[in-house]
Each structure stands twice: as structure tokens, then as C-alpha cells.
Amino acid sequence: MSDAIIEIRNLCKSYRSDKGEVSALKEVSLSIAQHDIYGIIGLSGAGKSTLVRCMNLLEKPSSGQVIVNGNDLMTLSDRDLNLQRRRIGMIFQHFNLLMQRNVLDNVAFPLEIAGLRKKEARKKAYEYLQTVGLEEKAKAYPSQLSGGQKQRVAIARVLASSPEILLCDEATSALDPQTTKSILRLLKDINERYGITIVVITHEMAVVQEICSHVAVLDHGKLVESAATEELFRAPKTAEAKRLVFSGSEHILDMTSDRVVRIQFHGGSAYEPILGNIVLETKTPINILYADTQTVNGAAEGEMLIQLPEDEEKARRIVAYFEEKGLNPREVKDHVKSAGNPDDH
Amino acid sequence: MLSQQEILMIIEGLRDTLIIVGFSTFFGYLLGLPLGIVLAVTDKEGIRPSPAVYKVLDLVTNVLRSFPFIILLVVLIPVTRAIVGKSYGTAATIVPLVVAAAPFIGRLVESSLKEVDKGVIEAAQSLGASKATIIFKVLLPEARTSLLVGVTIAFGTILGYSAMAGAVGGGGLGSIAIRYGYNRFQPQILWPSVILLILLVQLFQVLGMHLSKKLDRR
Ligand SMILES: Nc1ncnc2c1ncn2[C@@H]1O[C@H](COP(=O)(O)OP(=O)(O)O)[C@@H](O)[C@H]1O
Ligand SMILES: [Mg+2]
Q1: Do A85 and B144 touch (CB under 8 A)?
Q2: Dihedral sign computed on CA atoms, order A240, A246, A248, A250
Q3: Which of 115-134 (B) contact A at CB < 8 A?
């Protein structure tokens, strides 16, 4: 791919510890297009952080290539690597701000690295603070800010080095859902406004659905699947991806032995009227056991688990109605089995 | 009561102690600060690991630190004479004190710098900061409260050593306490000197802690 801004080839990384070698990445290859928002998902310990930290060489790969902006990072001298790193920003789960510098001076830090005088750096830094809407906190210290504000400062700081790429390692994982949303909006805004390519590492599916256009699934150090976000969430191919996409329903299923159907929304179908209508039509209240329906790039996506009523006839009518609306109702007996065969009609 | 002459002598002792401890702390840091930085940086968890450099400095530091001070005083007499021209008096006391303090200060600095959050260092690295930038704009400023606490600890320790130096002809309150209190058994001179020494340590401790708290933005 010629317009790839990040190209990873056969990347391997193993850590040596007392208990022997841990292989964190196994022959990972991927390419990320310019201006994309690219998600990398996986369970905890899958190797997501290791992978993203290889993209700016915070972690040194054991073998393979990391090509960013056409430069093979591992062949660069320390000096050249530092120059490249200024074009690859990174934000972190725990923000990593300089605690003894105020907000303004935190944002001025990369400008000082770039060789600006302190006064000039501060002036520019103030502008970046305005971009993230935190100019009134310029004189505050990080310890006086909320998590969301800290992440905004971190984003302003990273913007101050005018990067072409922004790596986000669990950047919203320490934030509440509301704040997560606002940070994601800011990231999307940055992506559109400055054309910065963003790589998002997360274990939260909602984050990926919210902003990523492409997503890769990492499992035990292997890249098992990658696709457009909408596609991956609609029709995950591998068992690992299915497990991630359909996560959360397991423990709920353990609690019920009644008949349950899973319905899926494939974009376009608004779920609220459908559920409302079914209640009106069958005169039976339905029980939603689990819902993971989100708007992915403007289209309703996701799944719900609906508990069917005891009454056979009503249950049949409900299933028929879902069938009619194209929601692909499948009776769920055993979660693992169902998650493994979502498409077998 | 103390005669005017004795009071004057104690005040002079106090002045000498302050000079000795002040200069020793200063020169101690002149050597110990770079030592501590190099130790922290070349450690295997540091920003530029170098097992060879670390091992050598680690060994030298440990050997010097485990050298009993009173022996060090004697061993260093030729060195002291070479540097200040004589082996007794105020200036001569500073030499062995610096030699004893520098490795101690190096360790204090090393441990302060190692307390700096790894994540903050990584953030600086991801922004393309050079190693020098990380040392001077991240490690030292972020560790400043801990470093200041270190200064008060170093000051107190050097003060204690300086009293010992009195035993071999150094100047200051310690030497007065030993000469008059111990050799001539004059408790009316011994106790004011000792109390002044204790007060001095306390004063600097309180001052140092206060300053480090005030400077801490965490
Ligand atoms: N510095 C390290 N030393 C040893 N093992 C590590 C280190 N960093 C990560 N690992 C191991 O590598 C694997 C992947 O870790 P990580 O990339 O942090 O996963 P994720 O970010 O997906 O949770 C894990 O098994 C982890 O224990
Ligand atoms: Mg991680």
C-alpha cells in the first residue's frame, strides 16, 4: 500500500524474564493508511501496548520492521529517531504529565525540545491549550485537574509537536463514559482538522465503534483479523474476534435457563421502534437481557439478547417478527457455541 | 556561667561549623550530583543503561561509603595536605568530609531520580527529547522535592561527620565539644556546643522539609 504511513512487517517481540521468554508479538504485519483512525483491540495481555510502543520504538522489537513515514525506524541513529519521534505523538492511559510543571509549561515542553525560547514556547502553547478548550487552566498544575482535563493537556502537549501520527494507548481507559466520549470527539476532531493519523489501542469495544474506521484484532501476540470497523462488528470471522465483539453476554447467560434469542442489528434498522412495536403487537412485555447496540459511523450495529415469554405461541410470534425485520434471531442455548456460529442459517 | 571569651569561642565554633558543613555540602553535591545522575541513567532501568559503567561506579560508591569516617580522615591526611597545604583546621576538615559525603550524596540523588514516574520519562521520549533534555528538564525538576529532602539529610549527616573531624584537629563546634567537654571536662562548654549542633540539624531539617513541601506541585 503506497499511502501507508505506518507499515509493520513481521514484527516479533519477546521479553526475557525469570520464568523464561515471553513472546508478546508474533510475526505481526499491518499497514495503516494516512489520515485513518486505526483501532487495535484485544484482551488484556494480548500485546496491544507492546505493538503500539514498537511504533515509536519505546519498545525495541526483537525482529521485523517498523516503517513510519517511509523511514525504517530501527536503522535510525538516536538523533534521527528523536527527530522522527516528534512526528509521532503518543498519549497514555495515565496521562504522564510533568507534575512539577504547570499546564502551560507542560504544553510548552515539546516546543522547548524543538528549540524555541521559553517565552515563544509559552505563547504557542497557549494556542494549543485553546484548541483543547483548557486555556483557563494554563496556570494550574496537573494535580489540580480531573482525568479528562489531564488527557486534554496531554493532547495539547502532543499537538504542540505538530505530529502526523498520534498513538493512543488506552487513552480513555481511566476515564468515565461521559469523559471518554468527549475525548473521543476531540480525537476525531483532531483527525479531521489536522489530518493526523490516529492509532487507538483499547480493550473497550465501544471506543473502537465510536471513532475507528479500521480495526485489527490481536490475540496472544498474533494479529488474527483486520477489517473495516463496521464489517468486523457485523461479521467477525475468527473466533477471537467474535469473542471480543460479543463479549459481555456470557455471565448474563449463566443466570438464565429460559429461552433466549439473540438478534443482530446490521446498520440502518433503528431498534427502538422495532422493540416498541413487538410489545404492542404481542401484548407481551419482553425482557432485554443484554444489549450492545451502538451507532457505528451513523448506522445501528450490535446485538441484543431477548428473553422469550413462557407462552409458546407468543414466543413464536416474537421470533417471527424479528425474522421479518431481518434481525436474524437465533436461539441461544450455549453462548460459546452461538458466538462461534452467528451466520449459519 | 560562661565568660565572654567562652561565648565568643562558641560563636566562632558555630561559624566554623556552618562554613565547614556548607562548603562540604556544596562540594559534596558538585561531585555527588553528577555521580547520582550517572548511576540513575546507566542503571538497567535507566534511560541509557550501561552495566559496565554502573557496576564500576556502584562498587566505588559502596567502598567509599563503607569506609569508617574516622579512618578516612587519617588516610586522607596526605591528600588534604596536598590540596589545602595543612592537615588541620577549618579548610582541612572540608576535604575528607567531601570525600565521605560525595558517594553518600550520589546514592541520595540516584534514589531520588529513580522515583520519577517511568511514564513521564516515556512521554518525554515519545516527544523526541534527547537524553540531556530528559535529565535536565524531566528527571531533575520532577525529582526536586525528593532531592531537597536529600539535601537536608546530607546536611545533617555532614554535620555529624564534622563533629567527628573535631577529634583530629578540625574546626567547629564538634572540635570545641571534644576539646573542652571531653579532654578538659568542662560541661558548661560541652553542652551549649552540643545543643547548638542539635538545633542546627533540626533547623535545617524543618527548613528543608518546609521548602520541599512548598515546592511540591503534586
Ligand atoms: N516489560 C515487560 N517485561 C516482561 N513481559 C512483558 C513486558 N511488557 C509486556 N510484557 C508481556 O507481554 C505481553 C503483552 O503485554 P501488553 O503489550 O502490555 O498487552 P496489552 O497492552 O494488550 O494488555 C503480556 O504477556 C505481558 O506480560
Ligand atoms: Mg496495554
Answers
A1: no
A2: negative
A3: 117, 119-120, 122-130, 133
A243 phi, psi to nearest 5 deg: -60, -40
Predicted TM-score (pTM) of this structure: 0.81
Q: What's the confidence (pLDDT) of residue A296?
A: 67
Nearest residue (by CA) to ligand 1, atom 4, is A15
CA atoms within 13 Å, Cβ hemisphere of A196? 27
Reported confidence tier of residue B217, pLDDT bands at 50, 70, 90: confident
pLDDT reported for residue B89: 82
Q: Are A11 and A64 spatial neighbours (Cβ–Cβ below 8 Å)?
A: yes
Is residue B121 included in any domain, yes or no? no
CATH assignment at residue B103: 1.10.3720.10
Query: What pLDDT, on the 0 to 100 scale, is given for residue B121?
Result: 98
Whether residue A164 is predicted with pLDDT greater than 50 in this model: the reply is yes
Evaluate whether residue B186 is within a structural domain: yes
Check if A117 has its Cβ closer than 6 Å to any atom of ligand 1: no
Instruction: State the closest ligand 1 atom to the C-alpha of A51, by its place in the atom list counted from 1.
Output: 17
Question: What pLDDT does residue B124 have?
Answer: 98
Question: How many Å lie between the centroid of ligand 2 and the Cα of residue A7?
Answer: 21
- By C-alpha distance, which of B31, B175, B174, B42 is closest to B100? B31
Cα–Cα dist A224/A215, whole Å: 11
**Under 8 Å between Cβ of A174 and A97:** no
Residue B103 lies in a domain: yes
C-alpha span between A32 and A51 (Å, rounded): 13
Q: Which domain holds residue B18?
A: 4-116+126-215
pLDDT per position as a tens digit, B16-41: 999 999 999 999 999 999 999 999 99
Evaluate whether residue B41 is within a structural domain. yes
Query: From CA A290, how far away is CA A293, in angstroms rounded?
Result: 10
| Record: contact A92-B123, CB cut-off 8 A | yes
What is residue A152's three-state secondary structure? helix
- Say if CB B41 and CB B135 are below 8 A apart: yes
Number of domains chain B contains: 1
Residue with the three cell numbers 573542652: B180
Sign of CA dihedral A305, A308, A313, A318: negative
**What's the pLDDT score for residue B101?**
95
Q: Atom 8 of ligand 1 has which residue's CA nearest to it?
A: A50
Asked if B23 and B93 touch (Cβ cutoff 8 Å), the reply is no
- Top pLDDT among B175 and A294 is at B175
Q: What is the pLDDT of residues B114-146, one digit of tens each?
A: 999 999 999 999 999 999 999 999 999 999 999
User: Looking at this predicted complex, what is its ipTM?
Assistant: 0.89
CB B154 within 8 A of CB B108: yes
User: Which single residue is written with the C-alpha cell 517481540?
Assistant: A13
Average pLDDT over residues A232-242: 90
